[in-house]
Please model this.
Amino acid sequence: MNQYPFINYLKETYPEAEVVKRALDHFDYYNKRRTVRDFSDKEIPMEVLENIIKSASTAPSGANKQPWTFCIVTNTELKKQIREAAEKEEYESYNGRMTPEWLEDLAPLGTDWQKPFLETAPALIIVFKRSYEIVNGKKKNNYYVTESVGLACGFLLEAIHYCGLVALTHTPSPMNFLSKLLNRPENEKPFLLIPVGYPAENTMVPDIKRKTLTDIAVFYK
Model:
């Protein structure tokens, strides 16, 4: 079996004091990231969309299979169709599918089945996971697909935030309508629907607090 050729990898390193500063600066910067639902309709340069997708594609993946497809929708009519289909599923969820406990947990966030941001946002990025590939007419499995695509979505959100844009991780359930509207092949399944854009002039977000380090981490010294 052929092996990848190995090449030298040089990663810049820093003095300890600089590492400490960078870690704190990084946290302060990303702690400002918020999920929003109020988007401006201002267009995003296609070059920006292309490069944030390329940034997402640098995520690690099982056996380097890179089992993802990013569909970028800026077409007005297609965004409208996606909104209509998503709202149909969301209406069913809010009016019967979701448990009372689920609805109670969502209530403080002020969400409902209506999703106007799917039309207002200048771009929708729909992430598909590829459970297998067809190579020379044969099915070849990918590995750790969900984990790999989840990592790529994290990289994508980081790139969006870095560019001064905002996003929403939207998961209407079920999402099979996205496969049909975008005419995706059988080996791709919708994973995440992400509206991307500039924040609206009067964007509002709930005053939530993130868990503390003590709540989320256990150190074994």
